[in-house]
Amino acid sequence: MATASEAPPKTESVKQKRVVFVVGGPGSGKGTQCDLISRDFGVPFFSTGDLIRSLIASGCPEGKQLQDIILQGQIIPSEVTVGLLQKAMASATSDTVLIDGFPRNTENRTVWQSQVGYDCELVLLFDCPEEVMVERLRRRAEGRADDNEETIKKRVQNFKSQMAPVLDYYRAIGKVTTISTDRPVDDIYSELSSLWRQRFAASPV
After folding, report:
1. What secondary structure letter does DSSP report for 29?
2. What is the pTM of this model?
């Protein structure tokens, strides 16, 4: 497994897929809606955070190296993150996949394009007011140490600042669709599932 100074691992070639990036601040509801789309339309979705945690939990050498990177306070290289996504995509039989919480910044986006060789088909932006995201995260019962109000606000601001140039790029080429998520889950999903049928359901998956 590569570290920040090493070359990225080789990844197997995969058939080009229709990739939908799902982005939004912490607490914007991405995971819930991805679960519903996956359930109803048979579309797999992958989260970079879940993939990294799963690899670390496996205890394999690559996972231990990732854990060391995190424990040293370093950022996992984009090449490694994209490699994990490529491996996950290779296991998917569907021609369409959802990727939750990626890209997080411009480096993620540029590494994806250079390493995967093609871009996403759509960016779903889950737009939610900061105060709503903060309140949702405060109500979580996970007991996470980083779910205090001050840290939550920093996470939200980091998302906004790092994603701004990414969203500018994708808006300029007409790939961003915004979904308002400051409302009940069922209302959000009604709009999202309708959009999904229009864009993807008529195509073979």
Report:
1. S
2. 0.83
